[in-house]
Amino acid sequence: MDFSLSEEQRAITRTVRAFVERELFPWEDLLLRRGMESVVTSPGLTKDEKLLLQKKAADHGLWGVSAPEELGGADLDPFTQTLINMELGRTFISFTFGGEASPMLYRCNEQQRPDYLLPVLHGEKEMCTAISEPGGGSDVRAMRTTAVRDGDDFVLNGEKMWISRALESDFAVVFARTPEEGAGGITGFLVDRDLGWTAQHIPTMGAEQKVATMHFEDVRVPAANVLEGVNQGFDQLMRWVYDNRLFRVSARLVGAAERMLEMGTAWASQREVFGKKLADYSNWAFSLAELEIELRAARLLTLQGAWKASAGLDYRHESYVAKVHTARLANRVADEMIQLHGGMGYAMELPLERWYRDLRVIRIYEGSDEVNLASIARNLFRGNVRLGAVTD
Ligand SMILES: Cc1cc2nc3c(=O)[nH]c(=O)nc-3n(C[C@H](O)[C@H](O)[C@H](O)COP(=O)(O)OP(=O)(O)OC[C@H]3O[C@@H](n4cnc5c(N)ncnc54)[C@H](O)[C@@H]3O)c2cc1C
């Protein structure tokens, strides 16, 4: 393992950090204020605001970092993507560069690309991914929504739940059972909003993620909108989850923990109680030191997984391990940094309170703690991995 950065990786990291500090940090205050006005529906960036920022980023060469070269993207390796996401995680603002799409969409065929993939890359359309249902989210195979062939269409019936961006998306990638197709299985469909699905907001504790239920009642979807192939859905999902957990979610959590700890260190160095700086109280000094150890461990776990992915090695186990550790750490850091800041930590004026609410869900979605722990345990008991091995 060699985690020393190439010149190019250093330059990219510097550029992204500068972009985040110069262009995104100034928006934080405004978004915190929006959050104070409407706790239930507080939005992040609007579509226009996001596009404006994506354009500025593109001027600095930050466009399509994960997209294949044939789509004009930079197709950066997982390790470099991880470095970028660590920088983007330093703000609570949910922002991605232009020219990016869910990896699922890169699998659109030539006919589907102009209506789905390209408009997403250019910020003209928004999409959501509909997997979870009221009957269960962790157990994907338990989904009940069905798609039954009728002539040149599939007819979708069922209900999805907790779907991020379902309220504003132009189309959804919907996963449904296709019980009458061959051996039966799960299939992904590109489903435009005007085909007739409806969505209803579910208020939650987080500010950033607006989620909704989605209803499908005899929604007819052309068979041409099947993503990749009938009964391929489960495999598509499995390919996607590992990348997402590692390069995106875990990497951003490392960035978030780092920024909150920086805030805590700065606060402890200047805030006095009973005539002494907080930093001079050993409980706070030790708490920050403990969290610095955990942060380093989180960064190394994430980089090690990304390094394996970049080397073409199996990184699934690493994605489980990194996701559990980074999700727990970021939540712990948010909690402890609020405590360190006292009343100010609890106020909506600082990002800590926002992070505290937004980060909680990370232990529930994208593979909950328990789902990842179950996968880690299974690998250990079945001998799929060597205990504690990081160089295999
Ligand atoms: C804000 C938010 C955004 C979301 N966005 C999306 C989205 O865009 N698209 C989408 O499809 N879904 C989305 N989800 C759904 C999310 O993926 C599910 O909530 C998640 O998979 C958990 O499913 P569940 O809520 O049904 O809980 P359940 O599956 O019912 O789990 C309940 C509890 O059991 C635990 N558990 C699960 N398996 C095991 C096990 N083997 N052993 C022990 N305990 C276990 C879980 O960790 C959890 O604590 C979102 C959820 C939220 C809250």
Automatic annotation (TrEMBL):
Sequence ranges assigned to domain Acyl-CoA dehydrogenase/oxidase C-terminal in this UniProt record: 231-380
PROSITE patterns: ACYL_COA_DH_1 (PS00072), ACYL_COA_DH_2 (PS00073)
Protein name: Medium-chain specific acyl-CoA dehydrogenase, mitochondrial
Keywords (A to Z) from UniProt: FAD, Flavoprotein, Oxidoreductase
Sequence similarity: Belongs to the acyl-CoA dehydrogenase family.
Cofactor(s) listed: FAD
UniProt domain Acyl-CoA oxidase/dehydrogenase middle: residue ranges: 128-219
Pfam families on file: Acyl-CoA_dh_1, Acyl-CoA_dh_M, Acyl-CoA_dh_N
Occurrences of domain Acyl-CoA dehydrogenase/oxidase N-terminal (ranges): 6-124
Superkingdom classification of source: Bacteria
